[in-house]
Amino acid sequence: MVDFKTVFASFQQMGVFDVVLPFLLVFALIFSVLEKTHILGTDKKNVIVIVCVILGLLLVAHSEIVSIINTFIPKMSLFIIVVLMFLLVTGIFGTKT
């Protein structure tokens, strides 16, 4: 039976955390910004995807930026969890408007 520790260790050996996850993060962030702001025009998803892939691959090519992202993600995820828990508690026990 395969456990999570061996799966994550094999992902780390393959370089998933150093290449794929930063690429997906940058791709998703840039895609959402370009899609929301319509900088490249409306209904131009294929152009936006090409721009996002190019920018994501350029970012992954720089190992210094990838290491910064890999140290930043755990801290930011903890912050997001704390903020969401605060919003949940204030939503449950908050005052009525």
Please supply descriptive tags for the structure shown above.
mainly alpha; 4 helices; 0% strand
Q: H/E element string?
A: HHHH
The shape is flat
Q: In terms of per-residue confidence, which ranges show pLDDT below 50 for 5 or more consecutive residues?
A: none
Backbone structural class = mainly alpha
Q: Helical region count? A: 4
Q: Which value, in Å, is the CA radius of gyration?
A: 18 Å
Q: Describe the biggest sheet? A: none
Average pLDDT figure: 90
Number of strands: 0
Beta content comes to under 5%
Oligomeric organization of the protein chains:
single chain
Percent of residues in helical segments?
over 70%
Distance between the termini: 53 Å
Walk me through what this model shows.
This protein is an all-alpha fold and 97 residues long. Helix content is 84%, strand content 0%. Helix 2 runs antiparallel to helix 3 (45-61) and helix 2 (16-37) packs across helix 4. It is flat and about 45 Å long. The model has no long low-confidence stretch (mean pLDDT 90).
Record the SSE blueprint.
Elements: H1 4-14, H2 16-37, H3 45-61, H4 63-93
Helix pairs in contact: 2-3, 2-4
Quick structural overview:
By secondary structure, the chain is mostly helical. The protein contains four helices and no strands.
